Amino acid sequence: MINKKVADVTEALKGVSDNMTFMLGGFGLCGIPENSISELVKRNVKGVTCISNNAGVDDFGLGLLLQKHQIKKMVSSYVGENDEFERQMLTGELEVELIPQGTLAERCRAAQSGFPAFYTPAGYGTEVAVGKETREFNGKMYVLEQAFEADFAFVKAWKGDEAGNLIFKGTARNFNPVMCGAAKITVAEVEELVPIGELDPNQIHIPGIFVQRIFQGKDYEKRIEQRTVRQRD
């Protein structure tokens, strides 16, 4: 097996530059590639397009890139937890493409699988379908959606080996799997990195063929976006 391990996040993001398109895994603040996002902030890359379910919160996740006006365009399905996102969108500073959540996932999966496009009923008859090809199948109308084209995909897994095989934990198994292999280069950061051969093949969610670079992450905060508790009796 090819060893995909790199020394750190700096080496993992080699080749990142302005005006690129990035995919970033996660849902809310769950399973986001914290180390990769911090490195993007540090490098101060500009004019980027981010494909992600949402844009984090004001002071964490992709919200950190928004604070520094590094993002030119967001391609997302949910953006309700970020005041700075709302401000930039309403003032025209940020270009936004809102996509039904299932369509977002399938456009990632199509890119991962090598399909150029697919038909979906989601969005037909709404603004989502404006300017897109539509077609009837068995009496039902569908919209043609194209696979994403991205330069880098940044994903976060619980455990991985040096060949790039990945295991996700709990709800962190959200958009991360479908973004693996969906860009020219997939960078995986993991909480635990083990030698090749130490993972049970039956437990692997994503095989290493979909990953080009993997590194051991550190200092994960794993913030909770909305903490809901009930009073004790």
Number of strands: 11
The CATH fourth-level homologous superfamily: Glutaconate Coenzyme A-transferase
Query: Cα distance, first to last residue?
Result: 56 Å
CATH top level is Alpha Beta
Q: Give me the number of helical elements.
A: 6
| Uncertain parts | none
Total domain units: 1
Q: What is the second-level CATH architecture?
A: 3-Layer(aba) Sandwich
Radius of gyration, in Å, reads 18 Å
The H-and-E topology, N to C, reads as HEHEHEHEHEEEEEHEE
What structural class results from the helix and strand content?
alpha/beta
**Helical residue percent?**
10-25%
Q: Please identify the oligomeric state.
A: single chain
Strand content: 25-35%
What overall geometry do the principal axes of the alpha carbons give?
globular
Mean pLDDT: 95
CATH topology: Glutaconate Coenzyme A-transferase
| Biggest sheet features | 8 strands, mixed
Organism: Gaetbulibacter jejuensis
Family: Belongs to the 3-oxoacid CoA-transferase subunit A family.
Keywords: Transferase
Pfam families: CoA_trans
